[in-house]
Amino acid sequence: MALPTIVASGNGTSALATGIRILKRGGSALDAVEACARLVEADPNDKTVGRGGHPNVLGQVELDASIVDGTSRAAGAVAALRGYLYPISVARAVMEKLPHVMLVGDGAARFAREIGAERARNLTASTAKEWRAQLRAIGETPASIRKRKDLVSRVWKMAIDELGTVNFLAIDRRGRIASAVTTSGWAYKYPGRVGDSPIVGAGNYCDSESGAAACTGFGELAMRLLTARVAVERLSRGASAGRAARSAIEDANGIASPGTRLSIVVLAKDGTHGAATTREGVRYTFMTSVMSEPATKPRALVPRTSTK
Ligand code: GLY
């Protein structure tokens, strides 16, 4: 049986000790990944997740999250959720309280209100200032952009290469696996744009018989390839975690256009893990129940070589 372990994208490092404490006292992988994700969601310094995450082109913070229980294969997700502090917990409540997997937009917010989820003003002073600066750079103001009928051209001008997300994959003492992914998505996106993070199978997947995988980067790539599901399928066919991660990025490179990027973390049911990326210098992080602090490792670099 694998040691209780949590693997995360690099921006999840500071949450791992909390997750490992839950696993060490016999808590579930599901509780551990949710607790870790909540810490990052509430941290206004991570501009790619939760409160303080980058807004869409209109200055609205629309959050996406999903959680998967690899034992029951239950899953819950929310997309384009506005005004709540912990999208991951709303996603878990979708899984546990409704006969559905995913809620979006106003429906997700209505459900969050109904379950008494904690509200938050997710656009912080710092992200509002950056949004206004981006608008100024393209000759717009908050008032002018809100009046516009055409946002397509504004999104092409404003959308920046800022597409972080946080991933947590965990195995508990009973060998149960769970995974959580949460994000504010593509900075200055078109309102209503949803990425891979809340799409079970694209940006997040696990199965306690095989392992778990989750993505960061351009969700449009992972959505087209069902990257996380395919990586877990490769584990089930005997690939190592490292091999499953590298081949997922090779697949993405096959359809990627210039400037896009994708990264993946993979955890196999035996506790081994690996990660890969299209971009130099991206690390991932992990912690087991016998470690006193998290460790970070470089991801395997799988650069895009084609010029198409
Ligand atoms: N991977 C995060 C997103 O595309 O929204």
Provide a count of the helices.
Answer: 10
Strand-and-helix sequence, N→C?
EHHEEHEHHHHEEEEHHHEEEEE
> What is the averaged pLDDT score?
96
Q: How far apart are the termini? A: 45 Å
Q: How many beta-strand elements? A: 13
What is the CATH class?
Alpha Beta
CATH homology-level superfamily = (Glycosyl)asparaginase
Number of domains: 1
CATH architecture: 4-Layer Sandwich
Structural shape: globular
Radius of gyration in whole Å, from Cα?
18 Å
User: Could you say which small molecules are bound to this protein?
Assistant: glycine
Helix residue percentage: 25-40%
How does this model look, in words?
It is a single chain. The chain is an alpha+beta fold. It has one domain (5-301): 4-Layer Sandwich (Glutamine Phosphoribosylpyrophosphate, subunit 1, domain 1). The chain has ten helices and 13 strands. The protein has helices at 16-24, 29-42, 87-97, 105-114, 125-137, 142-147, 152-158, 219-225, 227-236, 241-255; strands spanning 5-9, 63-69, 74-81, 102-104, 166-171, 177-183, 204-207, 211-217, 262-268, 273-277, 283-288, 295-298, 300-301. The strands form two sheets. The protein has an eight-stranded mixed β-sheet. A hairpin with a 5-residue loop joins β5 (166-171) and β6 (177-183). α1 (16-24) runs antiparallel to α2 and α2 (29-42) packs antiparallel against α3 (87-97). The longest helix has 15 residues, at 241-255. It is globular. The protein starts with a strand and ends in a 7-residue tail after the last strand. 56% of the residues are buried. The site of glycine has 14 residues, from β8. Glycine is lined by residues 163, 165, 183, 185-186, 195-197, 203, 215-219.
